[in-house]
Every structure is written in structure tokens, then in C-alpha cells.
Amino acid sequence: MDKIAVISDIHGNIPALEAVLKDIEDKKISRIFCLGDLAGKGPGSCEAVDIIRKKCEIVVKGNWEYFISEQEDNEFEEVLWHRGVLGEKRLKYLRELPLYHEFYMSGKLVRICHASPKDVLKRVHATASYDEKMELFEAPEDSEIDSDVVIYGDIHGAYSQCFDKKMIFNVGSVGNPLEMTLASYGIIEGKYKGLDEGFFSMAFV
Length: 205
Fold this sequence. Notes:
Structural class: alpha/beta
């Protein structure tokens, strides 16, 4: 079986990021995916971007990447500060991150994103309606089929839910958890890129 660690919402919190990466290493997991919001809020935006670029195989764009690198009319003081310290090379990297990434695992189409595969600013809370949650599985314009599993971050509170043979998995936040003062991340396990149905699991850490 293959294991993938999924982290999200680091927000420049380097002590939390280092602790999570150490735990992932201790568990001998070599493949790490990141769901965005590397920068913003905490003081270590530059370090967070550099570490994530080095350690993570897949990175998707968060709303803070959008605020800092793309939203030119955003004059919020904190956004301007982070934009200033990151420098053009890092801003270019953040600007070019994709909205989502998809892959098969044990016969399930898994789509990972920050908030929604269609919109980095669309927030879906754990208390959202059934219809709002089902929209997360819908294929974006440049994809062809609905997903079986959606893994996302954004709301800074870990939860999972299963319905209609679909699975939602929110991995919480590394650097700014809101449900408890503990960094969290997720681990999915199965046959990576496997098209045949088989063992598949999701776990919180």
C-alpha cells in the first residue's frame, strides 16, 4: 500500500510545519501533498514557501496565495507586508499554482484543492448543506468526471464525511488550527494511481 501525507494552511508557522514534517518523516511517508495557504498571518512566509517547494510533490493554490500574488487591488496591510517580503520569484511560484490536482487511488478518483476545485474563495464548512458539499465533487471545466473523494483545507477544522459513495476529507490546518491548538494533517492510504478498486483509508493526525 502507498501512503500520502496531506498538509494544508501553514500560514508561515514554521515551528508547526517543522513538527508536522518531522512526524511525517518518522512515519516513513515520502510523498507529501500541500493544499495551499503557505503564506499569510504568521511571520515565516518566505521559509514556508521554500520548505514546501522542496518537500511537497504536489502543491495547489490557496486563497492567501491568490490574495498575495494575484489580487492587485487588495490593499489589506497584512497582504501588502507578505507581498513585500516574499519577493518576485516566490510570488511567481504562488501565482502559477493550480487550483486543484486529481489522481486515482485504489480505483477512486481523488481531487485535492484548497477550498473548491472550481473556486479558491468558495468556503464549504463542515456545517454546510448537502447540496453545497455535493458541489465539491463536480468536475471543473477542464476535467471530465466527478470525483469520488475530495480532500480540502481552508476552514482550519478537520472533519470527514461519507455519503452516496462519496467521501469528503478536510485535513485541518498545520499552522492555524481553529478547533484545537494542535497542528493537524491527513494521511490517505491505498494503491497510488491504481485503477482497480481496493483498500482505501483516510486518517487524521
